[in-house]
Amino acid sequence: MSAATATTGTIARVSGPLVEVEGLAGVAMFDVVDLGPRELPGEVVSIRDGVLTVQAYEYTGGLRPGHPARARGEPLSVPLGPGLLGHVFDGLLRPLSGMPAFLPPRPVGGGTTPGEWHFEAAADPGARLAEGDRLGTVDPHGAMPLPILVPPHVSGELTWVAGSGTYAADAVVARVGDTDVALTQRWPVRLPRPYRSRGYDARPLHTGQRVVDLLFPVARGSAVGVPGGFGTGKTVLLQQIAKWCDADVIVYVGCGERGNEMAEVVSELSELRDPRTGGPLAERTVVIANTSNMPMMARESSVYTGMTVAEYFRDQGRHVVLIADSTSRWAEALRELASRTGTMPAEEGYPADLASSLAAFYERAGEVTTLGGTVGSVTVIGAVSPPGGDLTEPVTSQTERFVRCLWSLDHDLAYARHYPALSWTGSFSRDADMLGGWFIHHGDPEWARRRARMSGLLAEADRLTSLAELVGAGTLPGHERVVMLAGRLLRLVVLQQNALSPNDVTCGPAKGAALGDAVLAVVDQCERLVESGVPATAVEEVDFGPLVRARSDTGADDAEGVNALLDEVLKRLAQLT
Amino acid sequence: MNTTWGEIEHAGLHEIRGPLVLVRGVQGVGWDESVRLRSTSGDTRAGTVLEVDRDLAVVQVLEGTQGLDLEGTTVGFAGEVLHVPVGDAWLGRVCNGRGEPLDGGPPVLAGTRAAVGGQPINPTLREPPRDPVMTGVSVVDALTTLVRGQKLPVFSVAGLPHLQLATQIAAQASAGDEPFAVVFAAMGLTHADGAAVIDALEERSARGELVLLLNTADDPVIERLLTPRIALTVAEHLAYAGGRHVLVVMADMTSYAEALREVSAVRGEIPGRRAYPGYLYSDLASLYERCGRIRGLPGSVTLLPVLTMPAGDITHPVPDLTGYITEGQVVLSPEVHARGIYPPVDPLASLSRLMRHGAGAGRTRPDHLDLAAQLLAALSRSRQVRELAELLGAAALSETDQQYLDFEGAVEEGLLDQGTTESRSLDDTLDRAWQAVGRLPRRELSALDPLMVAAHLDVAADRGVGEEP
C-alpha cells in the first residue's frame, strides 16, 4: 500500500488478462500487483520459479513486456466505512459516482466516497477495549447511525479518541493500544470477517412476497438459491425483495448483469420510501454494479466484495441481505480464469473446485453473535442462470446442495404470466419447520398448518389437472373438482403477486395469512356444498371476483379488508344451498 | 486507417499456423495492439496481437494467412490497440467488414479516432430507456415496442424472412422528429443477401442516414469479429457526439459466434458448451452492452441483433446467452410463416422488457399498453381454445370459446400481416389492434377501461377506424 513496502518487477508476458511478472520477490498468493504505467490492478494466481502469474482486473490492451509491476503487499482489500450506504460501486468497491460516462481501465485507488462525516466518540480515553467494542458513531442522530468499532485482532487501552466533529472517511479517530483506528478500515475480501459465535435461533426474514413468506420462507442468516432461465422474472423477484424485505441493510451485487437494469434499480431505489425510516430506500442499500461488459476478473471478485460489505454491517449488529445476481456469471468467471491458467477442467469446463468455491461463499451467510456481543446476520440470496434452463447443469446442481432454500423459477408459469413464477413443485425451504415453531409464539400459531394445507392442495390440484386434460374435467367427482378449484384460487389469490400494483407490490404478514385463510375457508365451504349435493359446475360458476381482486383492492397490511371480501364470497356461496 | 505505423518493420516470421503468425525478436509490443503485415507480393493485411511473451508476439491476421511465407513477410506494429476514424463521414457509405470502402468511394477519413473495443458505460450515468423507436412494423410497434437504448434481438430459424424484417426495420425506423441513423453490420451474409440489403436500404443511404458494413460469408472469418465492433464504435460517436438516435442492426449473430468458436479452436482454448469458448457470454455482452442512453448526452444507441437458432433450438448457447443479456426478444415462428403471414412473429413468445417504460401515455398513445396486454391475454386464451378444440372438437366449445377460436387468425391477418415495404403509422397499427379485440364480446375485455373501449370501438363502428386525438 505504501511506497516503502512496494517492490518492483518487470512484465514478461501478456496474454489477455493473464500477465507474467519476473523479478518480484516476497509476494504471496492473491496479493495485489499494480501492472504497467497505468497501475492496472491484478491478483497473483500462481508463483513458480520466480515467475508470478497475475490475473488483471482490468483490460490490459497496450500492456507490454518490459513494463514495471509493483506489489502492494496485501491481498485484494476494500475500504469499509462511511459513504457505503446509498452509493454505487464497481466490483472492486471503487465508487462509480463521479466517474466518467465511459469507464477507462484504472488503478485501485483510495476507494472511499469523498466527503466528510460527523463523528461522536462513545468511549473515554483510558478505557480498556476489546475487538468489536464501540469507539463512537458516525451520524448518530441520522436514520442509519454507523458505529465505529475496534477492528478485529485489535485490543488494549484507548489512549486517544477524537472529539465530536466532522472528519474525512480516512481520518484516524482513535488509538487503541498502539494501533491507529480510522473511520474507514480495510479488509481482504476473500477472508471471512470474524465473529464470536454462530447462532441458530430461527426467525423469518419477511420478504413481502407471499409465495415465499407463506410457502418457502427463509430464516435470517440463511442462504437461498434462485435458479431460473431467462425471462422467468428472476431479476424482478430479487428487486422486489431488495425493496420490501424487512432487513436493515441490502447489499445488491449485480454480477455480470445488464447495465440498463442496474440503472433501473438505482433510480427506483432512490424514488421509493423506506416505510421504517421515511428516507429513500437507497439509503439502506449498497449497490455493487459489475455489468456484463466490465472486466471478467472484477466480476469474480464482486461477490466477495459484496459479502465483505455485508459482513461489515453484520458486525455492527445489523440484519443484512446480500443479493447476488447472478452467481452463474461468477462461476463462469471462475471457469474462464481456470481455462486461461490451464487448470484441468471438470464438469462442463468448470474447475473441479467449483463446489468448494460455492460452498465457501454460501457458508459466509449466517446469524452470529458479533465480536462486540450484538446479534447480526447475513442472509444470502443468489440467483442462478442455468444455460438453456437446464437445472442439471453444474452451478445449479451444486448450489442446491449448499443452500437452505431453493426458489426455483418456472418457465411455463412465466409464459402463462404467473408472477412471481416460483414453482411450488421445484422449490424447497429447509427453514420452514423451524420457522413454524417461531410463528407459534409470535402471533400466527396456524402458520405451519396453513402452509401444509396449501402445499397439499396445490400438489393434488396439479395431479388432478393433468388427469383432467386426459379424461375431461366433467368426468371427475365433485370433491376432486373442488380441489382443482382450490388450486386455481390459491394461484390467483395467494401466489400471484403484481409488482406493478401499488397495493400488491408487497404484502404484510397479516394480509398474507388472511388471504391464505380466506381461500381455505372458501374451499371448505365449497366442499360442504358439493357434499350436500350441489353440482360442482354450479360451485365453479360462482363469481369469486372479490376474492381474486382482494390482493390489489386492499392495502399491504389490510387483513380486515380481505376478510370483508371473503364474507362477500361466502355469502354468494351460501345462496347456492 | 490514420494509424502511424512503427518505423521498424520486423522481417522474418517464426511460425504460421491457421490465422496466427508468430514473430520473434520484437520489443515494446503491447497486447491487443494492431498490426500490419506486408506479404512478399506486396499486399497488406491487418492483425492484432493475441499474446506477447518476452520477444515473441503472436499475431492474429484478419484477412487470413493465405499467401504469407516465413521469409518475405514484414510486420509493423502500431503501438496502440485498433482504432477507427469516427464521424459523420461514415454516413451514406457502404464498406466491408473491416471498414474499407465497397462503394468505390475514398477511404473513410475523419479527424477523430476511437478504439474499437469501447469502454463500459458507467451504470450510474446510464439514463433508463424511456422513448420508443417506431419501426412501422405493426407487430413490433404494437406488442413488443422497441425502446431507445434497448437491445432487442430477433430470434429466427433458417429459412424465415428475418433478414427481410431486419432490413425493413432498418429502412423504416424513426424516432419522431429527432435525428436518426442506422448502422447495419452484416455478418456472414451470402452475396445475394448482401445485395438485397444494399438494395433495400438504398434510399436511407442516399439520405445520409445509413452506414453499412458488409462481411460476406466467404470473407475471412476473423474479420467478422471486428465488424460489429467497428459498427458500434461508429454508432456511439454518431449518437453521443452527433446527437442522433442510432439503431444498430447486427445480422447474423450466429455467424459471429461461429467465427468466435473457429478462432478459439485455432488458439487452442478449452471449449465450453457446444465447443463455443467459455467466454462467449462475456464476448456477446461486450457487444450488446454498448447500447443505451447516457445522462447529459444527446442521442441513444439501440441494438437489434438478428440470430438464427440452429435447428430452431432456443436453448442453443447463442440464443440462450443472448437472451440472458438482452432486454426481451422478437421470436419468428415457422408455423406462422407457413400460414403465409409476414412478418411471421409469434407474439406470445416475444417480449420487450422495456416496453412499459417506452410506450403508453406521453410516449406512444394512452391506450397502447392496456390494449397490448388485452390482445396478448386474448391471444393466449385463443391458443388454449384451439388446442382444446383439436382434442374435443369445435362443437364441444362454449359460445365464448367459439369466439376465441378464430381470434388468433384475425390478429395475424388484421394486425401482423403487412407488406415488406409497407410502413404503418402507430395510429393505423393500434386501430388494427382495436379492430381485432373488437371481435370479442365486450365482457371479455376485462383489461381495458370500458370508457376506452367505448371511445375506440363505438366510434370505429361509425367511421370504420379508431379515434385518438
Question: What does it look like?
Answer:
The complex is a heterodimer of chains A (577) and B (469). The termini of chain A are far apart. By secondary structure, chain A is an alpha+beta fold. Chain A folds into 4 domains: 73 residues, Elongation Factor Tu (Ef-tu), domain 3; 71 residues, RNA polymerase II/Efflux pump adaptor protein, barrel-sandwich hybrid domain (OB fold (Dihydrolipoamide Acetyltransferase, E2P)); 234 residues, P-loop containing nucleotide triphosphate hydrolases (Rossmann fold, 3-Layer(aba) Sandwich); 128 residues, Bovine Mitochondrial F1-ATPase, ATP Synthase Beta Chain, Chain D, domain3 (Orthogonal Bundle), CATH 1.10.1140. The N terminus of chain A is likely disordered. In chain A, helix 6 packs parallel to helix 7, helix 10 crosses helix 12 and helix 12 packs parallel to helix 16. Chain A contains 16 helices and 28 strands. In chain B, 34% of the residues lie in helices and 21% in strands. The C terminus of chain B is likely disordered. In chain B, 54% of the residues are buried. Chain B is an alpha/beta fold and 469 residues long. The longest helix of chain B is centred in the last third of the chain and has 25 residues. In chain B, a hairpin with a 2-residue loop joins strand 2 and strand 3. Chain B is built from 15 helices and 19 strands. Chain B has 3 domains: 72 residues, Elongation Factor Tu (Ef-tu), domain 3, CATH 2.40.30; 270 residues, 3-Layer(aba) Sandwich (Rossmann fold), CATH 3.40.50; 96 residues, no CATH class. Chain B has an 8-stranded mixed β-sheet, sandwiched between helices. A 7-stranded antiparallel β-sheet of chain B has the order 1-7-4-5-6-3-2, with no helix packed on it. Classes of the chains: A alpha+beta (577), B alpha/beta (469). At the A-B interface, strand 1, helix 3 and helix 5 of A face strand 5, helix 7, helix 8 and helix 11 of B. Strand 1 of chain A pairs antiparallel with strand 5 of chain B, so a sheet runs across the interface.
